[in-house]
Amino acid sequence: MWRRGFCSGSTRGALKEKKWDALVIGGGHNGLTAAAYLARSGLSVAVLERRHLVGGAAVTEELIPGFKFSRCSYLQSLLRPSIISELELPRHGLKLLKRNPSSFTPCLDGRYLLLGSDRELNTSEISKFSKRDAEAYPRSYYLYFCVYL
């Protein structure tokens, strides 16, 4: 199994000797949120993460040189506003960026599907693959917003 230590020898020894009130396994956005609330309540907390960076699904990484990809960063929109304000996340560097268009799907044949919040653009993009689906899309869009919102 791949392991990487970021602490110098003396620091690592001190960390091993410390008694923690709580250990959080996984430095994803949920683990970091839990750790922050535990620390705010006065507990000493250690977050253990096997990857070389923390943030879990809410990170953007350069997987191919020159190209950055969102692992699942759109999930940050599920982070409750109360957590953002209580933990003063903007003060600590949180910056939420709206993705528009929000989806790009390349195909092996060179075509692509680009989707976002613009209903007309979405219809046009869908029509590149299926005129029938493009014609039905506005009805499904309307039903989605009537049922789910």
From TrEMBL:
Q: What domain of life does the native source organism fall in? A: Eukaryota
Q: Which Pfam families match?
A: NAD_binding_8 (PF13450)
Q: Return the Gene3D superfamilies for the record.
A: FAD/NAD(P)-binding domain
Give the family this protein belongs to, as stated in its UniProt record.
Belongs to the carotenoid/retinoid oxidoreductase family.
Name of this chain's protein: Pyridine nucleotide-disulfide oxidoreductase domain-containing protein 2
Native species: Escallonia herrerae
Phylogenetic placement of the source organism:
Eukaryota, Viridiplantae, Streptophyta, Embryophyta, Tracheophyta
